[in-house]
């Protein structure tokens, strides 16, 4: 029992701090971009609209980058230091969860300050995008750990595609997102509910697959000291 508590505490201190660190970086970027892109606007709503846009954009992207940059780098490191294999794999999930929860709360805050209300449909889509990006990022981290340079090459290709998608979203701005959101909300309630349910099932299934892949590759990972 005492050993279990020590393991949990160790993981919270190591992995948890990196999740909070990622959220702090996100907040810094959002404040910087929000101030820059709202210059010349007298109303506070201009700042919060920009802040919410970048919080969603960067917040989603960080869920993809985190598993690759932190998970792919630190899991092999902690294994070389003698960490348990399952402990390392599940500890990384703590990092992703810590970031996802705190970043999501920050996005909800900027969204409320921007619109004066909570947009349930949009917020559910963001949550599903969070889970999907974690899953894709974790799969890339698995490829990196399993296949070395070849896996890294595949990860780079996927990352470039993701960055291009993020860049396209940046260029098109929030108008496209608002248009798509309005179109979806114009559908019947049953269609919207079914779409959100399918999205949630797909996101959860892909995350489960990525987690199983990570547990397997970690169990067979050759530690290099």
Automatic annotation (TrEMBL):
It comes from the Bacteria. The chain crosses the membrane at residues 12-33, 53-73, 94-112, 124-145, 152-172, 192-215. Keywords: Membrane, Transmembrane, Transmembrane helix. This is Membrane-spanning protein. It comes from Roseburia intestinalis. The lineage of its organism: Bacteria, Bacillati, Bacillota, Clostridia, Lachnospirales.
């Amino acid at each position: 029992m005492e050993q279990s508590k020590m393991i949990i505490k160790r993981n919270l201190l190591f992995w948890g701090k990196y999740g909070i660190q990622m959220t702090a970086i996100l907040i810094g970027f959002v404040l910087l971009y929000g101030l820059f892109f709202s210059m010349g606007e007298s109303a506070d709503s201009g700042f919060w609209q920009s802040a919410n846009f970048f919080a969603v954009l960067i917040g989603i992207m960080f869920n993809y980058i985190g598993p690759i940059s932190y998970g792919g780098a630190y899991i092999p490191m902690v294994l070389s230091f003698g960490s348990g294999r399952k402990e390392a794999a599940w500890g990384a999930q703590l990092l992703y969860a810590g970031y996802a929860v705190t970043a999501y709360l920050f996005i909800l805050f900027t969204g409320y300050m921007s619109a004066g209300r909570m947009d349930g449909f949009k917020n559910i889509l963001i949550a599903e995008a969070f889970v999907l990006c974690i899953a894709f990022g974790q799969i890339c981290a698995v490829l990196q750990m399993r296949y070395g340079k070849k896996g890294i090459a595949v990860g780079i290709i996927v990352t470039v595609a993701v960055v291009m998608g993020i860049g396209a979203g940046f260029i098109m701005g929030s108008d496209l997102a608002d248009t798509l959101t309005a179109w979806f909300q114009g559908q019947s309630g049953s269609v919207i509910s079914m779409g959100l349910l399918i999205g949630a099932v797909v996101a959860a299934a892909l995350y489960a697959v990525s987690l199983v892949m990570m547990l397997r590759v970690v169990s067979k990972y050759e530690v290099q000291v």
